[in-house]
Amino acid sequence: MGTVLDNKCPGCGANIKFNPETQDWHCEYCNGTFKLEDFQKNTEVNPLEKGQENFNISEYSCPNCGAVVVTDENTVSTACIYCGSTAIMKNRLQGVFQPDKIIPFKTKKEDAIQEFKNNVKKRWFAPKDFYKEENIKKISGVYIPFWLYDSYMNGEISARAERVRSWSSGNYRYTETRVYNCIRGGELEITDLPVDGSTKFQDEIMDSIEPFDYKEFKPFHKSYLSGFLAEKFDLNKEAVYSRAEKRMQNTMVNQLKSTINGYSSVIVNNSNINIKNGQVEYALLPVWMLNLNYKDKMYTFAMNGQTKKVTGYVPVDKMKVLKRSLIVFSIFFSISFIILFLFGLI
């Protein structure tokens, strides 16, 4: 059985959750409001447990109602399906699995639901039954594990640049294309380049909701997890480094390319980038997630829990497409008929 940490009110001992709006903890029972310092001074560490690395536990006992709930071995924070209490698996936050820092949620579930509705409303051909209220309410706040890489880079690029101008003379039209070989070199330092460390979440979706505001990083404390789900990494920093390296190289190339101005087009032919790696940190970043199974296909919606930046896929209702096409065709046909009739062509 796993060891579970619940977040208790320092005042009355009731379960208490983190409030993204006020960035503190408010107890619904004794009406107390608490800061992180209130939890830190009440935290006791058992020296026998420090460094413990028994992470393959798949069940825990809810501290509120006693129910035994099965979890994925990479789940750090979950909610009891019987009483709704948040439970944090302590032994999954120790040793190499203890995050260095965290960005707490700044948005509420209601914000995420509204953004999902706004996003779907923009899609004319989204099926109505796709965004039923009971489906939308399944949206969850999840702390996603990320590796943050620091690096120092230097290098250069070689690019083909074209400058095109056109003019007319008499009955003729002339186009002149001048081709240049541009070389740019420089240095670049990157801090906290993020790469998600979980196989559960699609890389392109996690990339799409960046950037996060790193000024709001906090030293990790388990109390921030209360009221939210959380995962620990199942891909270590070596396993995802190839993705980080590719992003670093692309960032360097794009920065150098951006200095080539005044041309009609610029195409990078060659690049030579040298990377000197620095510090790597483990962080948890806030994301609102909704996975909907629609007609045997999974659709994912994600919102940055700090900035509200959204991404997601929405299915297309073929009947809606057909109806709109018929309406547009009917309007076009009617207008064409009226014009032809007015000009006596029919």
Describe this structure in words.
This protein is of the alpha+beta class and 346 residues long. The protein has a domain at 141-315. Helices cover 20% and strands 37% of the residues. It has helices at 36-40, 109-121, 133-136, 203-208, 241-257, 318-342; strands at residues 4-5, 17-19, 24-26, 33-34, 59-61, 68-70, 75-79, 86-89, 101-102, 140-169, 172-196, 218-219, 229-231, 265-294, 297-304, 310-312. The strands form 3 sheets. Strands 1, 7, 8, 9, 10, 11, 12, 13, 14, 15 and 16 form an 11-stranded mixed beta sheet that branches. A 3-stranded antiparallel beta sheet has the order 2-3-4. The longest helix is centred in the C-terminal third of the chain and has 25 residues, at 318-342.
List the helices and strands and how they pair.
Layout: E1 4-5, E2 17-19, E3 24-26, E4 33-34, H1 36-40, E5 59-61, E6 68-70, E7 75-79, E8 86-89, E9 101-102, H2 109-121, H3 133-136, E10 140-169, E11 172-196, H4 203-208, E12 218-219, E13 229-231, H5 241-257, E14 265-294, E15 297-304, E16 310-312, H6 318-342
Parallel strand pairs: 9-14, 10-13
Antiparallel strand pairs: 1-8, 2-3, 3-4, 5-6, 7-8, 7-13, 9-12, 10-11, 10-14, 14-15, 15-16
